[in-house]
Amino acid sequence: MDETAAWAILRKLQTTGVTSKMEVKFTRNISTDDPQLTIRARIMERKRNAVFVETEIYNGNGEVCTRATIIYFVVSPEEAQARFRFTGCRVEGE
């Protein structure tokens, strides 16, 4: 879930940062036999350099099994390039 939140930050905000806090709520068991799991992340709010991301894991039936709220501290895109050599997160065709 943390990795998915990081990808949401990379792609949507075109910058990088670090995880500050992660609160996880388990609501349903996830079977290792389940042929497909879906993990989704969405940016809920941004306050200066703190970004609040909600992530969810769904089982093969589309039921939410786990939900996490993650606070991610980000740097400006300019600082990400200067300090971390981050040049952006593009997809094919961009």
Distance between the termini: 26 Å
What would you report as the Rg, rounded to the nearest angstrom? 15 Å
* Helix and strand run: HEEEEH
Strand arrangement, largest sheet? 1-4-3-2
DSSP summary: helix tally: 2
Instruction: Tell how many strands the DSSP assignment holds.
Output: 4
**Biggest pleated-sheet summary:** 4 strands, antiparallel
Name the overall outline.
globular
Structural class: alpha+beta
Quote the beta fraction. Answer: 35-45%
- Helix fraction by DSSP (H/I, runs of at least 4): 10-25%
**Low-pLDDT windows of residues:** none
The average pLDDT score comes to 91
Tell me what the structure shows.
By secondary structure, this protein is of the alpha+beta class. The protein has 2 helices and 4 strands; from the N terminus they run αββββα. Strands 1-4-3-2 form a 4-stranded antiparallel beta sheet, with helices on one face. Strand 3 (50-58) and strand 4 (64-74) form a beta hairpin. The longest helix is centred in the first third of the chain and has 12 residues, at 2-13. The radius of gyration is 15 Å and the shape is globular. The mean pLDDT is 91.
Provide a compact summary of the structure.
Helix content is 21%, strand content 43%. The protein has helices at 2-13, 77-84, and strands at residues 17-26, 38-47, 50-58, 64-74.
SSE map:
Elements: H1 2-13, E1 17-26, E2 38-47, E3 50-58, E4 64-74, H2 77-84
What attributes does this structure have?
94 residues; alpha+beta; 21% helix; globular; 2 helices; four-stranded antiparallel β-sheet
